[in-house]
Design a protein that fits this description.
Layout: H1 11-57
């Protein structure tokens, strides 16, 4: 983050504060994206494990009951 001691009440100060605000929103958005991505990966992992468990319950020999 860029943090400068700019406290002017002119266009430069306004621009600086807007840029700071945009930086904060970008960082918050990146944090949210990382959290959502981690949650999706966790769900995908659980779904893959469930699919493996279900597939292991299927008969491997056909016909299953000769």
């Amino acid at each position: 983050m860029i943090d400068l001691p700019i406290r002017a009440d002119d266009e430069i100060g306004d621009l600086y504060h807007e840029i700071r605000s945009m930086q904060d929103r970008v960082v918050e958005g990146a944090d949210r994206l990382m959290k959502v991505t981690a949650e999706r990966e966790h769900v995908d992992t659980e779904l893959n494990m469930a699919a493996q468990i279900q597939a292991s319950a299927l008969p491997r020999q056909f016909p299953a009951f000769p």
